[in-house]
Design brief:
Blueprint: H1 4-22, H2 28-51, H3 64-85, H4 88-101, H5 104-141, H6 151-167, H7 187-222, H8 233-262, H9 265-274, H10 276-290, H11 297-306, E1 314-317, H12 323-327, E2 332-336, E3 344-346, E4 359-365, H13 373-383, E5 384-395, H14 402-410, E6 414-420, E7 426-433
Parallel strand pairs: 1-2, 1-4, 2-3, 4-5
Antiparallel strand pairs: 5-7, 6-7
The structure holds S-adenosylmethionine.
Residues 260, 265, 268, 286, 298, 318-320, 323, 335-337, 348-350, 365-367, 369-370 line the site of S-adenosylmethionine.
GO cellular component, one term: chromatin silencing complex
Family: Belongs to the methyltransferase superfamily. RRP8 family.
Biased composition (Basic residues): 91-100, 185-204
């Protein structure tokens, strides 16, 4: 259909050539030529009769008009043979006619090329051509075939094929390997046919896909999926997903951390009671940060305690994962807002379930987080035995003025034993309990206001260090 105009242009020329060959001449010259023509026609018919059974199948025509063309082509073929043996005059005339048609030499050359291609195709892959023909035939026969509506174009081929095949018993079956179409088709026609074939092939593939799907799916089921290469889409997607998850965790960690520093401990307690997972997430974030430190304060405290009697009872306020309890031989009471370890007593360290003056050592390792630090230190004073040891380790940059802080602590019934400001990440202070707090509950202890310890958005580093 799509090539109809070209076919229509071509057909009259072919028909005209045929009529020239058959038309008797009326002039004297043409009488001689006419007799020669008759001779030639006789030869032509003989040749035609002889050559038809061996003639390879021509490509299918497009419609009924094409059948006429097939007849014309049959006539044309012997004429070419005829031209080879005809007189120079006739040759001239024929040449004129052919010049009207277009450049014959290039045609014949290209026909040769096409012929060679086709022959090569026959040698290499004519099974494919045969397969295409067979497919077309099947599709035509099968009314349920979804490709059927697209067969309009194909019918130009198969219909003409069938009709010509029906008319001509000498034609080989459609399974016959590639024919020699350039013998009977012009270059344009041959190209059109090729285009048709390609288009048909493309059209057939799409509707055939659903039919082939089950077989493909079955093959896929049995196939072992290839291991994803590092640059595969799956691996990249997985890496991206992991990175996004990591970023999300980081954002949640920063949020929780800020909550712990910016409100009273009661709020922090509620937060973790309502969302125990948040506590895990917070500690994952904390651990990923603190492990990068040159020295973890908890390890420093453990080292200190190793130099003291193992009989001393220790209370770890804000114990986290009980690293201190795991590092020393002393009996340790572990307190935290949530439990990461069976040794933990879950509570707000502003009120621990311990008797007054029951412990020898009270430890706050990076745990003075709420806005009610005074409550924590007063509770430590309560449970510590007289002369008991208070150890505080905090991120160094949280301190605006260390002396103010130390002064405030001493008002709560402690005296400073030692201070270590040498570490790059944290300050460490030792206090001894001197007695109960020396100030009333309403007294302002501004030195206990420490900066919140926040983290850089990207790297989770303590910004308070820089
Ligand atoms: C930064 S972590 C340090 C953990 C552990 N001390 C260490 O150094 O590995 C602070 C811990 O103190 C806990 N914490 C903060 N405020 C608390 C409170 N009011 N009562 C109990 N634990 C608290 C937190 O839940 C957290 O586990």
């Amino acid at each position: 259909m799509f090539e109809e105009p070209e076919w229509a242009e071509e057909a009259p020329v072919v028909a005209d050539l045929g009529s020239v060959a058959l038309r008797p001449r009326t002039t004297a010259d043409s009488q001689i030529k006419g007799s020669k023509h008759r001779q030639l026609l006789a030869t032509l018919r003989a040749l035609e009769a002889a050559s038809l059974p061996q003639q390879p199948p021509s490509l299918p025509g497009s419609d009924e008009e094409d059948e006429e063309e097939v007849v014309q082509r049959k006539k044309k073929l012997p004429k070419k043979v005829l031209f080879a043996s005809t007189s120079p005059e006739v040759k001239k005339k024929r040449k004129k006619k052919r010049q009207k048609q277009g450049p014959p030499s290039s045609d014949s050359k290209e026909e040769e090329v096409e012929k060679k291609k086709c022959h090569k195709g026959a040698l290499l892959g004519n099974d494919f051509a045969a397969e295409e023909k067979r497919k077309r035939k099947c599709q035509k026969q099968d009314p349920s075939n979804p490709a059927q509506p697209l067969d309009n174009v194909d019918q130009t081929g198969s219909k003409a094929w069938n009709s010509s095949a029906a008319n001509d018993s000498t034609k080989p079956s459609p399974e016959t390997p590639c024919s020699n179409p350039p013998h009977t088709l012009s270059r344009k026609q041959w190209r059109n046919r090729q285009k048709n074939k390609r288009r048909q092939k493309n059209k057939f593939r799409l509707p055939q896909a659903p039919e082939q799907a089950p077989a493909t799916a079955a093959a896929e089921e049995t196939e072992v999926p290839p291991a994803p290469s590092p640059d595969s889409h799956g691996a990249r997607a997985e890496a991206l997903r992991a990175r996004m998850a990591q970023r999300l965790d980081g954002a949640r960690f920063r949020y929780l951390n800020e909550q712990l520093y910016s409100g009273p401990s009661s709020a922090a307690q509620r937060l973790f009671q309502e969302d125990p997972e948040a506590f895990l997430l917070y500690h994952r974030g904390f651990q990923s940060q603190v492990k990068k430190w040159p020295l973890q304060p908890v390890d420093r405290i453990a080292r200190d305690l190793h130099q003291r009697p193992a009989s001393l009872v220790v209370a770890d306020f804000g114990c986290g994962d009980c690293r201190l309890a795991s590092s020393i031989r002393n009996p340790v009471h572990c307190f935290d807002l949530a439990s990461l370890d069976p040794r933990v007593t879950v509570c707000d360290m502003a009120q621990v379930p311990l008797e007054d003056e029951s412990v020898d050592v009270a430890v706050f390792c990076l745990s003075l987080m709420g806005t009610n630090i005074r409550d924590f230190l007063e509770e430590a004073n309560r449970v510590l035995k007289p002369g008991g040891l208070l150890k505080v380790a905090e991120v160094s940059s949280r301190f605006g003025d260390v002396r103010t802080f130390l002064g405030a602590v001493t008002k709560l019934g402690f005296k400073v034993i030692s201070k270590d400001l040498t570490n790059s990440h944290f300050f460490l202070f030792d206090f001894q309990k001197t007695g109960p707090p020396r100030v009333g509950p309403k007294a302002q202890l501004s030195g206990l206001k420490l900066q919140p310890c926040l983290y850089k958005r990207r790297h989770f580093s303590y910004i308070s260090y820089f």
